[in-house]
Amino acid sequence: MAIWAIGDIQGCYDPFRHLLDAIDFDPDRDTLWLAGDLVNRGPKSLKTLRFVHSIRDSTVNVLGNHDLHLLALQSGAVRNGNRFRTLRKLLNASDADELCDWLRHRPLAHYDSKLDTLLVHAGTYPTWTARKTQKFAAEVEAALQGDDYLNVLGKMYGDAPNAWSGKLSGYKRLRFIINCLTRMRMVTTGNQLDLRFSGSPWRSRKNQRPWYDVASPAWKGTRVVFGHWSALGLIVLPHIVSLDTGCVWGRQLTAVRLDKRIARVVQVEGQH
After folding, report:
1. 172-205: pLDDT as tens digits
2. CATH number of the domain at 3-269, out of 3.60.21.10, 1.10.510.10, 2.60.40.420, 3.30.300.20?
3. How far is CA 8 from CA 4, 67, 97, 221, in A?
């Protein structure tokens, strides 16, 4: 049995299926770890989501920021605008409710103690261990799956608060956890999230650093697998695996095998 992690698909169904062929994926034998952002921007979000749902027993899928926005649009928590027209076919599909209900019940973080590996979409906070990350993610998961999920989806937007405190409560607490796990790239002095930065980390200012590059993070020793940051690209190190290689921008879609001592990397050409 192989465990493969795959980066942001974003509706790029054809490259996704080509990648599964390239790694000889067998849903009866293997497991996919999908790093979130299954949908949006690419041309086949509906087909992608339907296929992942069809093999759901063989996948671990964490929510990304684009997945959460789909849920907000589908539920009516926010208004649908032309900016997200690539989701229109999905939103109008006869099985949209079923697919989105399944998606709403996906985790924001997944931790495998045997592999000592954490899967998140964007990253984890410097003062959070892998166990704390999973614990805080579970707070959001419970809220999304509860009766108040419309308010949670409607109030998740915004950049504040930008630093963690155990005293945070209510929607502010949930928003920070969501931002950390699905939007974070850079942190600044005092471990404040800089959610406006989206470029290459080598173009950062002196007071900025990638979330994974802070001194002595609490999650140190755990391997963190993530996507979200296409400008960062592929990184495969003992403690981090960065998977978003810009498939939707015509670069590559990447799979990394996690259950071997030496990680194997397989890539296919991205969306054209």
Report:
1. 999 999 999 999 999 998 899 999 888 888 877 7
2. 3.60.21.10
3. 13, 11, 23, 25
